[in-house]
Specification:
Blueprint: E1 2-8, E2 16-23, E3 50-53, E4 68-72, H1 79-84, E5 90-91, E6 105-114, E7 120-126, E8 133-140, E9 143-150
Parallel strand pairs: 3-6
Antiparallel strand pairs: 1-7, 2-6, 2-8, 4-5, 4-6, 8-9
């Protein structure tokens, strides 16, 4: 189980984008990999999902498929190229973003909207114990606010 604490400040009135790079550095098993070319998942008008955060609620929020993704099979993307390009992100058309065992890097993005007037600490959990490298970026206006490095390699 991997987790981190992300402070969220409503005072900036901007939604905070979190982009997580999940590099699955496990041996490639083509029989388990999803062939995204056979799925109609792209659309240039897809809006980044917004997850409302209510600090008085103690229940868990499940992001699951409430995010967009980008495939990076050659591992050439960086946070700078992702933030500054007009990349077409894809919707996740199932309950969770499970792409099987693959060498492809996946980028995910979603927004968390803190509805309170105070900064809040939010804990994100990735209940997948076999991920080697996870990079979580908190961004605002295409600028990196914070970066977290998680996974078995850290």
């Amino acid at each position: 189980m991997h987790g981190c604490s992300v402070p969220v400040n409503k005072m900036t009135r901007s939604l905070i984008s979190l982009v997580a790079l999940l590099c699955l550095l496990i041996s490639s098993q083509s029989c388990l990999a999803i062939d995204a070319d056979n799925q109609d998942l792209t659309s240039p008008t897809i809006q980044t999902p917004v997850i409302p955060f209510h600090p008085d609620t103690t229940a868990k929020y499940y992001i699951n498929s409430e995010m967009l993704y980008l495939e990076d099979p050659a591992h050439i993307e960086s946070i700078e190229t992702v933030l500054n390009s007009h990349t077409v992100w894809k919707e996740i058309k199932r309950n969770s973003p499970n792409f099987g065992f693959t060498d492809t890097a996946y980028w995910f993005k979603f927004n968390i909207n803190n509805i309170s007037d105070q900064p809040q600490t939010i804990y994100l959990e990735l209940p997948i114990p076999f991920l080697d490298s996870i990079k979580l970026f908190q961004t605002s206006d295409k600028q990196i606010i914070q970066q977290y490095d998680l996974g078995d390699l850290y």
